[in-house]
Amino acid sequence: MIAPGKNEPVRVETIVVPDPGPHEAVVRVQACGVCHTDLHYKQGGINDEFPFLLGHEAAGVVESVGDGVTDVAPGDFVILNWRAVCGKCRACLRGRPWYCFDTHNARQRMTLTDGTELSPALGIGAFAEKTLVAAGQCTKVDPAVSPAVAGLLGCGVMAGIGAAINTGGVGRGDSVAVIGCGGVGDAAIAGSYLAGAAKVIAVDIDDRKLATARTMGATHTVNSAETDPVEAIRELTGGFGADVVIEAVGRPETYKQAFYARDLAGTVVLVGVPTPEMKLELPLLDVFGRGGALKSSWYGDCLPSRDFPMLVDLHLQGRLPLEKFVSEAIQLDEVEKAFERMHHGDVLRSVVVL
Ligand code: APR
Ligand code: ZN
Ligand code: ZN
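YS: structure for the whole thing
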């Protein structure tokens, strides 16, 4: 599925996928979720390296591997991740590879039949029957999981669960508030529930979203279009505020709510992605007067090789209802329609199933 130019409708085209070079793999895609980031690529909001090969929340089967590939083999069922990290830089050596910028994504290029080079979205490009990636972008998981569910762990759902568990450090008995209950916020709710949080307070301006949030594990809901969410969260936590507040919208006003809705020693996790022009103003005294931590979560601060198989296993054991994130299965040529439904807030995730 190609995004040919800024704001032009996406379309299906024949592409040429070269054989994998050293440390690369060709993956036969089985499912790929439709994410906001794909829409941002199409709108030219990320960069202008058109044409893009969209799609990046994907799972499939390794078809062939190049020289030097040892971790995966043809026939393996894998979830794709955005970046093959280097393993050698300071971030990697300190155990924080999500901050690795020396990434080793596939260097060979996929092209259109006329030789035009394609830019794969987030180094993946999986709205396609096959895609070429770095072997380090492939994580083997239990093939008993449905591909549509597995693919979602490659991006938005991992970002939300990881924001709660990895970044927020949510643990047994904690109180958690999640502001914004789309796919990412709902995943943060499911992650908090899984981690044993005693209270999981869902905040949104849309009652439909709050109803879904309850099915993900929210114990309380607050419609912030009607009620002051800071007051409501304080009331629900004995006047203290939540131990962890997760902001999953990406706006200054919701970040402010998160800032004031936490316990004095609580943690704020920003996982919603702001735009470059957004600014935040806070009284410095209020920052001084509160301990705890202000954190942001990159890709759920995940380690794919640790987190993807673990979350798949928890799902297969019936402890993580990842299937609830799949709102509909669609065909490759329905991605444009799926963007519209996403824009109107009708779906958590549309997933292209191939
Ligand atoms: N207060 C509370 N909730 C809000 C507000 C607000 N002011 N504005 C929007 N929301 C809610 C919407 O009603 C919706 O339920 O936030 C949710 C956003 O969900 P989605 O649009 O489905 O986005 P999602 O995929 O969950 O991603 C959320 O995380 O990774 C980032 O780029 C992503 O910034 C985006 C954010
Ligand atoms: Zn590195
Ligand atoms: Zn995504």
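YS: worth flagging: The chain has eleven helices and 18 strands.
IM: good catch. Also The first helix runs from residue 36 to 42.
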